[in-house]
């Protein structure tokens, strides 16, 4: 028996995500804190369950300092629940950080924003290359799905695990929230591709600076129109032109002209600002 539920003690329920319930737990043998993401598979068809298992196996292959680490999964037949054991990120998520800034009327400092940009590029590079043999399982890139560990390292959160679940109508109604980060090509009915992750990253970095997404609308049609137009206000004046320039590269409407992760990571402006950070 590699490890069962009785090897952990639940500390508290953190919340519910688009897939199920999230618990903060402690492993009895080493006293370390982990996260359980509990997914009920009761109502699932056989092939949906198979898809979920294959996605969990994909998760288990990914190991990177900027990706929330998957450790194990426990199948609890009695309640038809799959528990995914993941790394606990002490620093919480970026959406909480943005909300804190809004409440206190403060901004995140530029050095932190460059650090998030760089480490998220490294996370996406790992996703794109370590998983290139399969369809790119896009990570749901949004502030609520980017975490910080106790050392301030940036961690891209769990997978479009929800890809299986999102497709599954029974979960559809749990998909709440406006698709602020949807890319122009996806809006036009194109396939989600690596360049769409770059667009979402641009929206995330923009929002870290401005504390609001680059494109907003009172309804989905208006939002879609603004995204396709690709016009947005400059980030607050106290941030550098260099940072604005890199964001404008990430938010190029034509995905063929939008840079790849490699181009961003090797861009002289990024290299110079990251050198200042480390
Ligand atoms: C949506 N956010 C605004 C919620 C506020 C966030 N506060 S919080 O949840 O209590 C909190 C405070 C401090 C640290 C952490 N660490 C953490 N959280 C995860 O998921 C959060 C959870 C995801 C599903 C929806 C509910 C929130 C992790 N997943 C893998 N490792 C994780 N580490 C969480």
Provide the fold topology.
Elements: E1 8-16, E2 21-27, E3 33-40, H1 46-61, E4 70-76, E5 81-87, E6 92-93, H2 94-104, H3 110-130, E7 146-148, E8 154-156, H4 162-167, H5 169-172, H6 184-187, H7 194-210, H8 220-229, H9 241-250, H10 261-265, H11 268-277
Antiparallel strand pairs: 1-2, 2-3, 3-5, 4-5, 6-7, 7-8
Helix pairs in contact: 3-7, 3-11, 7-9
The structure holds ligand F9N.
The ligand CN(C)CCCNS(=O)(=O)c1cccc(Nc2nc(OCC3CCCCC3)c3[nH]cnc3n2)c1 binds at residues 14-15, 17, 22, 35, 68, 86-90, 92-93, 95-96, 144, 147, 157.
Question: Which regions are unreliable across 5 or more consecutive residues at pLDDT < 50?
Answer: 168-174
The chain-level structural class is: alpha+beta
Give the H and E element order: EEEHEEEHHEEHHHHHHHH
Provide the β-strand percentage band.
15-25%
Can you count the helices?
A: 11
Give the ligands present: the ligand CN(C)CCCNS(=O)(=O)c1cccc(Nc2nc(OCC3CCCCC3)c3[nH]cnc3n2)c1
Query: What's the rounded overall pLDDT mean?
Result: 90
Report helical residue fraction.
Answer: 40-55%
The radius of gyration over CA amounts to: 19 Å
Looking at the structure, what is the overall shape?
Answer: globular
Strand order of the largest sheet: 1-2-3-5-4
Question: How would you characterize the largest beta sheet?
Answer: 5 strands, antiparallel
Distance between the termini: 43 Å
* DSSP, total strands: 8
